[in-house]
Design goal:
By secondary structure, the protein is an alpha/beta fold. The protein has a domain of about 200 residues. Helices cover about 30% and strands about 20% of the residues. Strands 1, 2, 3, 4, 5, 6, 7, 8, 9, 10, 11, 12, 13 and 15 form a 14-stranded mixed β-sheet that branches. A two-stranded parallel sheet has the order 14-16. α1 packs across α3, α10 runs parallel beside α11 and α11 packs parallel to α12. The longest helix is centred in the middle third of the chain and has 19 residues. The protein is globular.
Length: about 525
């Protein structure tokens, strides 16, 4: 069939898979047909964070003069450049009604880490006038209560900063006022977004590492700060607490997930929880774990739970031989301690209602005891169908007794994943109802991806200084390249409903001793 005879709907579907980086733009110059089909695709999802001032002004002028272009846009992502002294995005939002420029918006994402609070109130006013708006993603270093109803909003993501040096938080009364404001914010969600179904709060990405609130003074005197009655979100079904890329929000924000879990524990169906463990701040791990597991103990209706546990912002030292005190490379004991504090609350946890569980550990601990204790509690999950557990690089410690002067500074890795006896014990603890099982130790994971641990190629200068001779990379490569085997009978006799199974680094052997076809070629898709 000649290409020219294909219906426009089919050609449009094909063109929508073109790369946004340049291919889509080049398609505009192929012919008139491609131009007419590609133009709506380009404007459908406008991803323009940190755009240059002149280009942003040109875009707004183009949309204003060609109103039909704005009608194509369903998703809009705007981001400010913190080094833009013209404050382009803030000025444009202040002088243009986004709702009029893009009347068909369904989702808005705004990077507003240096916005003035007054501009956020104007932004929410625009959102309130949008007819079809269903999702808002906001990156801002503070909480700003909503003031107008956004009745159609179903999903809200609020990413705030991890900065502890906010001018307000450093005041003696700063924490008290912030706690009052976060309660006002939760109250405003109940009154302004009654249809909210999914709420995400925390540090969603690297944006959480910059931006300071312009609350430079206390807004409300203590005597005028009355009790705030929270309003329940009747439609809320999904909740996520995020500490993205190992960045923890300021501790005061931990009140938000605690209150949300407490108010909605009998109606939540899906919970995702990310935690960044600080080796020098054991309280952080313990308090974060307490909030989660205390909330989960009352959340009987949760069917899907996702956990991600990673070290907090591991940044190798810039000088050879010097280890950053916030890094996690130099000891496994600290990782074990904070991990135990975080998972300690699972002892009284009842997972009987779970149908899906996904756990991601950035680093594997030195002993399977901690994981075994957690997995034993899954025996109560009689209806669990899907279970995924992924590990990243193993922890390591300095060699206890160097054999010679050449061994000084070398590392010993602690891992149990390739201990067949330990793996067998874990499998025997899993629920018999499983239909999907993924266990993986792949040597790469989340925050460590930036250091390209998995590729074992040349790293950035700072990392090369941390691992000058490449010995650590070599040991990691040797670990993740191992192969072990477990009998297929061990899996399927215990879990007769198993349909999909993958255990990284292991061959699943049938009764003849041969590897199960295809198993070794599968890879875990994150």
């Amino acid at each position: 069939m000649p290409f020219s005879t294909l219906p426009n709907e089919l050609v449009s579907q094909i063109l929508s898979h073109a790369s946004p980086s340049g291919t889509r733009y080049n398609c505009l110059f192929v012919n008139r047909r491609f131009y007419s089909l590609m133009l709506p695709i380009i404007y459908r999802d406008l991803q323009i964070p940190f755009i240059h001032h002149n280009r942003l002004v040109t875009l707004i002028r183009t949309v204003r003069r060609n109103a039909f272009l704005g009608e194509y846009t369903k998703t809009l992502c705007l981001g400010e450049d913190p080094f833009d002294n013209k404050r382009s995005v803030e000025r444009i939002i202040g002088s243009n009604d986004i709702n009029k420029l893009f009347p068909s918006l369904q989702k808005i994402e705004l990077f507003a880490m240096t916005f003035e609070r007054a501009m956020l109130y104007r932004f929410w006013a625009y959102c309130a006038r949008a007819k079809g708006l269903e999702e808002v993603v906001l990156h801002y270093p503070d909480l700003v209560p909503l003031v107008q109803p956004i009745k159609g909003l179903k999903r809200l993501t609020w990413s705030f900063t991890g900065c502890e040096i906010s001018p307000v938080l450093m005041l003696p009364e700063g924490y008290d006022e912030t706690k009052w404001i976060l309660r006002k914010w939760l109250q405003s969600l109940g009154s302004c977004t009654p249809g909210l179904e999914k709420l995400v709060v925390g540090c969603v990405g690297r944006e959480g590492s910059w931006g300071i609130s312009d609350r430079i003074g206390l807004e409300v005197e203590q005597v005028n700060r009355g009790q705030v009655e929270l309003v329940r979100l009747e439609n809320l079904r999904e909740f996520e607490w995020r500490e993205g890329e190992g960045i923890s929000p300021a501790k005061v924000w931990l009140d938000v997930p605690e209150l949300v879990l407490e108010m909605h524990k009998d109606q939540l169906e899906k919970v995702r929880w990310e935690v960044a463990l600080h080796k020098d701040d054991i309280y952080s791990a313990g308090s974060t774990g307490s909030v989660l597991w205390d909330g989960m103990k009352g959340a009987k209706g949760v069917k899907k739970l996702e956990l991600r546990v990673c070290p907090a912002s591991p940044i190798p030292a810039s000088q050879p031989g010097v280890v950053d005190t916030q890094a996690v490379w130099n000891t496994s004991n600290a990782i074990l301690v904070v991990s135990e504090n975080f998972l300690g609350g699972t002892r009284d946890w009842d997972p009987s209602g779970l149908e899906g569980l996904k756990i991601r550990f950035s680093m594997i601990t030195g002993s399977p005891l901690l994981e075994n204790e957690f997995l034993k509690s899954l025996e109560k999950a009689k209806y669990l169908k899907s279970f995924e557990m992924t590990f990243g690089i193993p922890t390591f410690v300095d060699a206890a007794v160097p054999a010679s002067s050449e061994d000084i500074g070398k590392k010993d890795f602690h891992y149990w994943y390739y201990d067949v006896e330990a793996m067998t014990g874990i499998i025997q603890n899993l629920p018999t109802s499983l239909e999907k099982l993924f266990l993986n130790f792949d040597g790469k994971h989340d925050i460590h991806d930036k250091y390209r641990q998995y590729e074992f190629g040349p790293m950035e200068d700072t990392v090369d200084k941390w691992d000058e001779d490449g010995s650590i990379r070599s040991q990691i490569k040797g670990i993740v390249s191992q192969r072990r085997s477990i009998p297929k009978k061990l899996l399927y006799d215990r879990m007769p409903n198993l349909r999909k199974v993958y255990i990284g680094g292991y061959d699943i052997l049938d009764s003849t001793g041969g590897a199960e076809a295809g198993i070794a070629k599968l890879s875990l898709v994150n």
